[in-house]
Amino acid sequence: MSKDLSTIEAPIIELKTKLEGLKAQPPSSKRDREIEKQSQKLAKLQKDIYKNLTEWQICQVARHPKRPYTRDYIQYLCPDFEELHGDRRFADDAAIMGGFGTFNGEVVCLIGHQKGRDIKQKLHRNFGMPRPEGYRKALRLMKLAEKFNRPVVCFIDTPGAYPGIDAEERGQAEAIALNLKEMAVLRVPILVYVIGEGGSGGALAIGVGDHISLLQNSIYSVISPEGCASILWKDAEQAPKAAEALNLTAEKLKKLDLIDSICEEPLGGAHADPPLMMRHLAEHLQSQLDDLRKRDIDQLLDQRYRKFRNMGKYAQVG
Amino acid sequence: MSWFIKKSSPIKPAKQKKVTIPEGLWDKCLGCKEIIYRQELKRNNNVCPKCDYHFRVSPEERLQLLFDQEAFELLFDDVQPLDPLSFKAVKTYKDQLKKLADLKKVHEAVWVAKGKLDGRPVVISVMDFSFLGGSMGSVVGEKLTRGIELATEEGCPVVIFSCSGGARMMEGAISLMQMAKISAALARLAQKRLPFVSVLTDPTTGGVTASYAMLGDINIAEPKALIGFAGPRVIQQTIRQELPPGFQRSEFLLEHGMLDAIVTRGELREKLIKYLHFFRFQA
After folding, report:
1. CB of A13 within 8 Å of any CB in chain B?
2. Is the Cβ–Cβ distance between A225 and A246 less than 8 Å?
3. Residue B102: enclosing H or E segment and its boundaries?
4. Which residue of chain A comes nearest to B167, CA vs CA?
5. Which positions 71-110 of A are in contact with B (Cβ < 8 Å)?
6. What is the pLDDT, as a whole number, of residue B186?
């Protein structure tokens, strides 16, 4: 049985507290030596712990409450970002945010699921679970990007599309479906980053693109481990087993050719050093943008089609 | 106190005559609970003559109902399932697949057929709920995509009958990506201005609804079919409220603008012919 993340992270937190205590002491050469020693110990500990995470522990890192969210990345990448609201049909959905900004001198369209940190924000963001208007807003922004020839960057971080009466009434399924179809033929480059949880159709609805990247400790799955466990094991407590069976980690997905790359996280996960995580992602994004810009759009669309076309494992008999 | 004592022997029920009903002659309607003569049910396309309840039918029966002279050719049955994740829950996926193979379920959860409808070629695909709940994995994705690509190439319309619980968990994210794959193929079909009619039958939920089933130029459904993104149980567990009556049924979707029409099984063929005629390509 795999231990909870909070249990395995406890020694790290303990050591961090100790370090902070040391730093608060009056400076002396003895103190500095001790800080040096403890810092090395911390680095080794983080490395050891994070090297051997189980699938279930990775799920918990992906859902870590301190993990950077879409807004954090956008603010870092595009300091001049302007958020644009509403689907022009029904409402503005706070579970998906989007707009335009300048990244290293180039205007890009940025769209992503947004979770909340405290309870008030969580409710406002509906825990990052969009309703149809969220997906329709995302599509509206993508169409704007297409019209004015700007690349689209999507950040995925959702437990899934919201399962509620109102969402069903307004066509949750149709909203997701239409995005899949339109993104397949959108005539600008699309880059997708799964920065936390990639929860099923609610994630894929902003996840069709030319380059799909998972942050090292992110997950992407057809169903949540808890959901899978309660259906196939009839017991949600079996989630750790389901997490293992579903092959939802970046490494496994890369092996299955379902994603294009893995974006490295700092030691101890993205939440351990958000500024370093931001730098990694910015570098990754820049190199991908440079690469995609070189290609002719029809060629790009053909490659996008081929990529998804080739996903699937079956036997060809006879 | 003699009035408390029963003088006469109690009335016994008459010995029940055992009525022997031959097996397989009658069916109970799942809608109105009436007993229906099976022959009559069959004549009525597996629709209850009393309450109009639409029974689930096999893909074979459906295809026969649609094509001219009941003639069609099945395609892509050489695409067969694998167990790419070596998936194991309480049962192993491998065993489940083997059991279905022993039952001679060679078509997987979708049948793709080509034939003529009112004299014109059409590709019609029908999902089979009896194969792992009609769930969509690699094979369903591949067969549907090949069907759509064939139609795109040959310039004929596509009709898909959905009947599925959604994406197949046992193939993990591979199943999820089939949603994008099929939708992309439909986008290319649309670029060639070829019609796609989606027929939603009981039940159509999850990743199937959230991809091709909702992408028809025309979306129609059989009466009272369960259609939704999230299943009713999941919604109930999330919001902890009673669901309104008729929630996620065809009639509810029509009222909320998600369907073009509700079409009974008896009228299906004629309606499809009409729709495809409306959208026949004109230069």
Report:
1. no
2. yes
3. helix B93-102
4. A222
5. none
6. 98
Residues of B in contact with A169 (CB under 8 A): 256
For residue A232, the distance in angstroms to the closest alpha carbon of chain B comes to: 6
> Is it the case that residue A165 has pLDDT exceeding 70?
yes
pLDDT at B50: 86
Residue-wise pLDDT for B25-76, tens only, equals 888 888 888 888 888 888 888 999 888 899 999 999 999 999 999 999 999 9
Chain centroid to CA B102? 23
pTM (2 decimals)? 0.92
Q: What's the pLDDT score for residue B21?
A: 64
B-chain CB neighbours of A180 within 8 Å are 179-180, 183-184, 211
For residue A220, the chain B residues in CB contact (below 8 A) are 173, 176
Question: If you average pLDDT over every residue of chain B, what do you get?
Answer: 92
pLDDT at A30: 87
Minimum-distance CB partner of A311 among B174, B186, B247: B174
Strand order in the sheet with B110-117: B72-75, B110-117, B120-127, B158-164, B196-204, B218-221, B261-262
Q: What is the pLDDT of residue B8?
A: 73
Q: What is the pLDDT of residues A274-312, one digit of tens each?
A: 999 999 999 999 999 999 989 999 999 999 999 999 999
How far apart, in whole angstroms, are the C-alpha atoms of residue B118 and residue B144? Answer: 23
